[in-house]
C-alpha cells in the first residue's frame, strides 16, 4: 500500500525543504558501508539550495506517519515516501548493507546541508525492517553539534557514533536478518534525518513465518487511517496526475557531482537526547495465541498499509467493526 502513501504525500513535497543526509554508515570493519535510504550519492553536496542540494534529504514527521502520508522513514523531495522495503532490497543487491553484532558502534556520516540539519540526533531501531514498530532506542555518541536542530554550519560532514544494543533480533528484508536504523534531529521544520539498513552478524539468513508477524494496528488507528485515506483520495489522484507532467519530471531529474567535505565540529554544543534504552526486543514474539478466528487478510480495501492481519487482542467485535467500516466506506 506504499503507493497510496506516495499519492497522498505528493502535494506536500513541494513545500518541504529538508536539510541533512546520511551519506555513509560503517558498521563492522571490513563489511560494506550502508547509505541512507533514498539518498543519491550523485547529488552535489557543495551548496545549500533546495535544488539540487536538498533534494534527497529526508523529513520524518510523526504526524505524517500517523496520518498514513509516509512510513516511519519519512519522505524526501525527489522520491516522496521512502519505500523502506524497496530501498533495502536495492541495497542488498548492490552489496551496500553494513553489518553489526551486539554493541557494535556504527560510524554514521551525516551531511549537514544548512542550519537546521544540525544536532542533536536521536536514533532508534526497527527490528522487523519496515513494520513501523520502533522496538528500541539507540545510544548516540559524538552527536552532531547543534541545539534544537540548529547551528551555523552548512554543507559540512559530521561523524556520529550510533551503538547497536546488546540484545536485538533483526528479522527484516528478504534475508530475514536486516534491521532498519532511523536517526532524526529535533528541528521544528523537520525533524530531518534518515534511515539505513543494518545486517545482523550473529544471525544467519532466515525465513519468516506469517503467523509470528507482530502488528502495530488497533481499531482506532485503522479506522482513523481509512477515514483520512478516503478523504484525501481525490486530492491525491490530482497530485499524482500533476507529478506526471513534463515540468514536474524535469524538476525531479536532479543529478550533480558529489563533493563531500569533512570538517571539524563548530562551536555549537554537542548534546545528547535523553531516551529510554533497553526495551525488550519485540521481534517475532507471537502475540496471536488463541486468535484463530482472525480472517481479516483480504478485507483490506481501504488503503491500509499496516494490514489487519495481526489482531493481538483477538477481539471479535473489533473485527466486525473494521469490516463494517470498510463496507460503509467503500
Ligand atoms: C559544486 O561541485 C560541482 C561538482 O564538483 C561543481 O561543478 C560546482 O561548480 C560546485 N559549485 C560550487 C558553488 O562550488
Ligand atoms: C525511547 O525513548 C523515549 C524517551 O525516553 C521514550 O518515550 C520511548 O518510549 C522510548 N522508545 C522505546 C522503543 O523504548
TrEMBL record:
Residues 1-18 form the signal peptide. Residues 300-312 have a biased composition (Gly residues). Residues 284-330 are annotated as: Disordered. Residues 284-299 have a biased composition (Low complexity). The keyword Signal applies. Keywords: Signal. InterPro entries: Egh16-like. This is GEgh 16 protein. It comes from Apiospora kogelbergensis. The lineage of its organism: Eukaryota, Fungi, Dikarya, Ascomycota, Pezizomycotina.
Amino acid at each position: 500500500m506504499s503507493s497510496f502513501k506516495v499519492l497522498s504525500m505528493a502535494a506536500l513535497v513541494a513545500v518541504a525543504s529538508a536539510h541533512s543526509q546520511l551519506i555513509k554508515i560503517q558498521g563492522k570493519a571490513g563489511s560494506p558501508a550502508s547509505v541512507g535510504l533514498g539518498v543519491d550519492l550523485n547529488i552535489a553536496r557543495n551548496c545549500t539550495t533546495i535544488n539540487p542540494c536538498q533534494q534527497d534529504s529526508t523529513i520524518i514527521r510523526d504526524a505524517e506517519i500517523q496520518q498514513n502520508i509516509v512510513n516511519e522513514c519519512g519522505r524526501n523531495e525527489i522520491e516522496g515516501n521512502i519505500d523502506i522495503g524497496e530501498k533495502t532490497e536495492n541495497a542488498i543487491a548492490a552489496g551496500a548493507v553494513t553489518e553489526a553484532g551486539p554493541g557494535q558502534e556504527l560510524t554514521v556520516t551525516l551531511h549537514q546541508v544548512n542550519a537546521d540539519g544540525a544536532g542533536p540526533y536521536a536514533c532508534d531501531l526497527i527490528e522487523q525492517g519496515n513494520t513501523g514498530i520502533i522496538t528500541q532506542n539507540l545510544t548516540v555518541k559524538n552527536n552532531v553539534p547543534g541545539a534544537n536542530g540548529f547551528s551555523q554550519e552548512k554543507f559540512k560532514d559530521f561523524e556520529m557514533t550510533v551503538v547497536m544494543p546488546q540484545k536485538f533480533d533483526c528479522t527484516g528484508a528478504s534475508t530475514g536478518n536486516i534491521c532498519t536504523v532511523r536517526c532524526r534531529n529535533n528541528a521544528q521544520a523537520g525533524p530531518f534525518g534518515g534511515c539505513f539498513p543494518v545486517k545482523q552478524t550473529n544471525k544467519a539468513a532466515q525465513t519468516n513465518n506469517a503467523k509470528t508477524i507482530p502488528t502495530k494496528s488497533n481499531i482506532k488507528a485503522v479506522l482513523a487511517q481509512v477515514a483520512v485515506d478516503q478523504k484525501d483520495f481525490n486530492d491525491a489522484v490530482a497530485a499524482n496526475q500533476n507529478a506526471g507532467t513534463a515540468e514536474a519530471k524535469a524538476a525531479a531529474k536532479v543529478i550533480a557531482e558529489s563533493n563531500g567535505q569533512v570538517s571539524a565540529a563548530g562551536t555549537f554544543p554537542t548534546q545528547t537526547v535523553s531516551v529510554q534504552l533497553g526495551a525488550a526486543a519485540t521481534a517475532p514474539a507471537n502475540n496471536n495465541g488463541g486468535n484463530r478466528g482472525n480472517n481479516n487478510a483480504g478485507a483490506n480495501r481501504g488503503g491500509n498499509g499496516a494490514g489487519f492481519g495481526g489482531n493481538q487482542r483477538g477481539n471479535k467485535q473489533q473485527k466486525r467493526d473494521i469490516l463494517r467500516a470498510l463496507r460503509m466506506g467503500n
